[in-house]
Amino acid sequence: MTRQEIYDRLLAQFGESVVAFSNEPFTQFIVIDTPAWYHIAQYLKTDPDLYFDSLMCVTGMDLGPKKESMEVVYDLFSMRHRHKITIKVVGPREDFHVPSVESIWRVADWHEREVYDMFGILFDGHRHLKRLLLPEDWEGYPLRKDYQVQEYYHGIRVPKIKPKKLAP
Amino acid sequence: MGLLEHKFNDNLVVGKIDNLIGWARSNSPWYFQFGLACCAIEMMSTAASRYDFDRFGAMPRSSPRQADVMIVAGTVTMKMGLRVRRLWEQMADPKYVLSMGSCASSGGPYWQHGYHVLKGVDLVVPVDVYVPGCPPRPEALLEGLMKLQEKMKKEKTLAKLAE
């Protein structure tokens, strides 16, 4: 199936929950309404014509305080049909809740934990949502655009290093 | 023993006990394997037959309780920094720390942007010898160990310190 066909199918099935579609080179994705994402994910996994049995990657994106939005990007691939699609879920920068697809694709378990670790995006329904890489008592979410490094970590000083000005 | 053979009356040697202790310590610096990143590969290479750490009496140990020297080889993250300190506390005195590579010494390439990297292992444990390099070649690590041996030899264990 081509991306256009997948999009048409989703549009016929879910209507307004499918928000946008882009089929330009390098920006090929479908934007999904956040609350409907779990059901659409189930459909994408189980429908015999789509059958996206492999979740290749889950990525978080912070578009910065100016745009006031964050995204979660899911790359899906079907081993049976050899087609793939990128799904995006868009939301606010603070208190962004996304339905967890960890129960649909088990691989999403650590991926979602990592996205939570780096961006603070909350995945509702995840059975074990805690930090994956950083220690549990870390302050802040490092891959956010406005992240500030904490001054002390367990009494260890974290030196503030200013970027060096290069000679003209 | 050609040089020393039949040279001493009653098998007696007169010398300072500190020199003997220093000599003994410096020739058995058992090191605590602390491979954290790519420096560990160079440390392994140093321990292997071509560079042969063993000829200095340096033996790799996997437990802090059996080790004299801690070779911190690699990038120390904040998370690991707390563990480094705990392992250092578990080592028996006398203990030494050799900071290997620029990451362990100062944060290295993560100096500016690595939010999670400890900017030098000397923020958590006292360091005796810094070995620069990214990663240092085995010769550099050997040189670092020899510097540490010199330090061990000069150390006063029993003698009063000058006030």
Q: What distinguishing features does this structure have?
A:
heterodimer; A: 168 residues; alpha/beta; Beta Polymerase, domain 2; two-stranded parallel sheet; 4 helices; B: 163 residues; Rossmann fold; five-stranded parallel β-sheet; 5 helices; 10% strand
Q: Could you characterize the architecture of this molecule?
A:
Chain A has 168 residues and is α/β, with parallel strands linked by helices. Chain A has one domain: NADH:ubiquinone oxidoreductase Nqo5 subunit (Beta Polymerase, domain 2, 2-Layer Sandwich), CATH 3.30.460.80. The relative contact order of chain A is 0.13. Chain B has one domain: Rossmann fold, CATH 3.40.50. In chain B, strands 2-1-3-4-5 form a five-stranded parallel β-sheet. The termini of chain B are far apart. The model of chain B has no long low-confidence stretch (mean pLDDT 88). Classes of the chains: A alpha/beta (168), B alpha/beta (163).
CATH-defined architecture of chain B: 3-Layer(aba) Sandwich
Poorly predicted segments of chain B? none
Instruction: Work out the oligomeric state of the chains in this entry.
Output: heterodimer
If you average the pLDDT of chain A, what whole number results?
89
Please tally the helical runs of chain A, counting DSSP H or I stretches of 4 or more residues: 4
Largest sheet of chain B: 5 strands, parallel
Structural class of chain B: alpha/beta
Number of strands of chain B: 5
Low-confidence stretches of chain A: none
Query: Which architecture name of chain A does CATH use?
Result: 2-Layer Sandwich
Strand content of chain A: 25-35%
Q: How much strand content do the residues of chain B show?
A: 5-15%
Share in helix of chain A: 10-25%
Number of domains of chain B: 1
Q: What is the overall shape of chain B?
A: elongated
